[in-house]
Request: fold
Amino acid sequence: MNDPPITAAITVPRRTIFLFSTAAFASSVNIRVCDPLLPQVAHAFSTTPGVAAGMVTAFAIAYGLLQLVWGPIGDRRGKYRVAALASIATGVFSAAGAFAETMDWLIVARFFAGAMAAAIIPLAFAWIGDAFSFATRQAVLARFLSAQFTGIVLGQAVGGFIGDVFGWRSVFLIVGAIHFLAGACMLIELKTNPGAQPVAAPAMTGWRTTVAAIGDLFASPWVRVMLGVVFLEAFAMYGAFAYIGADLHHRFGIGFGLVGLFLAVYGAGALTYSFTAKRLFQKLGERGLALAGGSLMAVCYALLAFAPNVAFALPAIAFLGLGFYMLHNTLQTNATQMAPQMRAMGVSMFAFFLFLGQSLGVAIAAPVVDTWGAPPIYVVAALILPIVAVWFRTRLSLRPAVA
Reply:
């Protein structure tokens, strides 16, 4: 593995982590920035929100598929270096979306942006997994995730606002610039800071060995549980979440800018989790966090489905963010220990199933939303998510002992 656990002999400067966090922030913005833009893009290309959601699906499919590539590359070539180059490339393809003249070309640009962005967050988690013991990793990951949560807040609030004032094309230009600058600064950091460098020479594992290692992963009952849980979580959660903005606009008649602000409270709920993660973990444990998170998401989606007016949507979206990360951060922490000797590959496999579930959820929901609206999708999510949480909670006994 290219990046072994960081020892006391090497101190990772705050700047090194901050730059990685900035790239993760940009990636989080990119993942969710299209949600509040769906109505605007649909109007610009004279199509329906379901068809416009193809840009969400394209990004998610590419993001998921490329996990199978970026994980092994990160283990072989260096997680920090690969993530930096990927952030630069993501910036280029994100900006390209601003110049799309047809819906098809926008979908292509989003596909390649997703393919490049796929490297950043999973490699960041794997890099943290190398640096911290499992016992302290959940709290560390929660703090690191604050950059992602901030990206979600700005991606959905500022994305909707900027799109409303300056047009949706300007959003892709701004996101692309942040990605490009973050990646360039990370490359400079590699040149000047030993804390970002691999401690040992890279282990040039062959691709046949990598394929065999993937087979070994699937042979583990615990890994199969992890991958199944995250797939269903993403299928239910994001298959419904992608349509909240369009639903608020069409069902309650609120403007595009306000749609973005409503969606931003999801990130605020997620940030609340990042600030309280340590206390919540001490009080509930990972079993309690998973169950409480799944149950809270179910209540929130039920509230969105049957809300008599838009005022009910605000607390529902906020607590949806809190509930999701109570469950998902618990899953992420376990994902960093799925394959300790090829940690980036293990985390990337986890991310692959996450975004496979998301892309299928959004695609399957599209014709339902176009025909009957979003509430039926909310009800399905409310039924699936607590079942997924209970399944994970009851199967934790399969997890191998961790250090």
Notes: The chain has one domain: 14-398.
